[in-house]
Design goal:
The strands form 2 sheets. A two-stranded antiparallel sheet has the order 1-4. A two-stranded antiparallel ribbon has the order 2-3. α1 runs antiparallel to α3 and α4 crosses α5. It is built from 5 helices and 4 strands. By secondary structure, it is mainly alpha-helical.
Length: 123
């Protein structure tokens, strides 16, 4: 599993979206949602530029998307560390068990986990 983020997501008139801009491990199930969110943001920006020659949204495209992308990267990293065992590191396995226990016993932790899982792309 690997993670990649290309910053910025704009190079002159070239705009990166989806896997061209970022790769997220499948653990958090965010890859396609991130790609679709990129396209949504970019389509609104292009529409504004074409209809009224307003480049404001194009100028902030990268920053807008990267805020969501980095949150998804953090969440996927957290999920990977929580769900995949470390076969040769008992310390990491202990930390993993503590995370799992917290996720199922703490209402606050469960709420944060659920919100990150379903609401992350609503930015």
């Amino acid at each position: 599993m690997r993670s990649v983020v290309n910053e910025p997501m704009r190079y002159g008139r070239l705009f990166l979206a989806g896997d061209a801009a970022h790769i997220v491990p499948p653990t958090g199930a965010k890859g396609m949602n991130l790609a679709l969110a990129d396209v949504r943001v970019l389509s609104r920006a292009l529409t504004a530029q074409l209809k009224s020659n307003d480049v404001t949204l194009l100028d902030v495209y990268s920053a807008t998307c990267l805020e969501r992308v980095w949150r998804a990267q953090e969440f996927s990293n957290y999920m990977t560390q929580m769900l995949h065992p470390y076969y040769d590191d008992e310390f990491e396995n202990g930390v993993q068990r503590a995370r799992l226990r917290q996720a199922v016993t703490s209402r606050e932790a469960t709420t944060v986990l659920a919100r990150n899982y379903v609401d992350l792309n609503s930015l």
